């Protein structure tokens, strides 16, 4: 059969005896390599399946200021997880190993079984520590109407949440400077020239470069949500990653004026 395939005899026949000829030796050498490769196929497939099962894609549409801590939380006791993180990525079809951390001005529907609330937190006015408004506990809308506001770019969830509340309260800052990077925004707040509306818990300043104040007549909140594809089961690694994210946000879920605790699956 093989002689027919290669188009030449592979054996020399001497009487009742046969032996490999030079063409047969070439065929044998490559046959050994082929058999070795065939043996490797199941092992490589199994290794790839393990990698896929341990792979988790986390899309961070919000709370990027917490990303370093969140990353440590996930991997500190779950090193087998192969975590990939995307920020500000265009919409893509969710997979069974994909989690999305996003923000909204409203919670998901009660019937929703593929999303949970990580945190409900108040949005307050961030004022540079050296700004004249920093010394006031409560600030009126008229006092900030002419201030220059810093904001994340309009396509970011926080900006969309603020636009929702601006419409509800009939208030809109006269001057808004947009930027992509949350860290740059917080650095610019130390210049004493601008103010910003920021989530009160997850953006709380660590270096006292700005303070958070209430604005009379404004009651604004954001919901941090974790969601996944409803029609596909999460892999064990994705479920473990989901639990690690929930555990991480329990530190912010102390009932009080800034945040409220939620625990629903």
UniProtKB/TrEMBL annotation:
According to the record, the segments passing through the membrane are none
Q: Which residues form the HTH lysR-type domain?
A: 1-21
SUPFAM superfamilies tied to this protein: Periplasmic binding protein-like II
Keywords (alphabetical) are:
DNA-binding, Transcription, Transcription regulation
InterPro entries noted in UniProt: LysR_HTH_N, LysR_subst-bd, WH-like_DNA-bd_sf
The highest taxon in the source lineage is Bacteria
Q: Name one GO cellular component term.
A: protein-DNA complex
Q: What is this protein called?
A: HTH lysR-type domain-containing protein
Specify the species. Answer: Candidatus Choladousia intestinavium
């Amino acid at each position: 059969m093989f002689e027919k395939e290669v188009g030449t005899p592979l054996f020399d026949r001497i009487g009742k005896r046969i032996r490999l000829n030079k063409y047969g030796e070439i065929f044998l050498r490559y046959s050994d390599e082929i058999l070795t490769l065939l043996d490797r196929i199941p092992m490589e497939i199994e290794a790839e399946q393990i990698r896929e099962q341990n792979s988790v894609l986390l899309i961070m549409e919000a709370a990027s200021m917490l990303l370093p801590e969140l990353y440590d939380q996930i991997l500190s006791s779950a090193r087998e997880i192969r975590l990939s993180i995307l920020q500000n990525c265009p919409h893509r079809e969710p997979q069974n190993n994909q989690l999305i951390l996003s923000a909204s001005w409203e919670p998901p529907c009660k019937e929703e079984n593929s999303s949970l609330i990580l945190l409900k937190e108040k949005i307050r006015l961030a004022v540079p520590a050296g700004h004249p408004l920093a010394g006031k506990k409560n600030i009126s809308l008229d006092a900030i109407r002419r201030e220059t506001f810093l904001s994340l770019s309009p396509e970011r969830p926080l900006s969309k949440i603020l636009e929702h509340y601006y419409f509800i309260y009939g208030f809109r800052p006269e001057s808004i400077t947009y930027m992509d990077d949350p860290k740059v925004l917080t650095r610019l707040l130390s210049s004493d020239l601008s103010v910003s509306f920021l989530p009160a818990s997850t953006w709380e300043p660590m270096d006292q470069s700005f303070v958070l104040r209430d604005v009379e007549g404004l009651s604004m909140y954001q919901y941090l949500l974790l969601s996944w594809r409803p029609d596909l089961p999460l892999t064990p690694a994705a479920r473990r990653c989901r639990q690690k994210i929930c555990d991480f946000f329990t530190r912010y879920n102390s009932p009080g004026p800034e945040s409220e605790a939620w625990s629903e699956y």
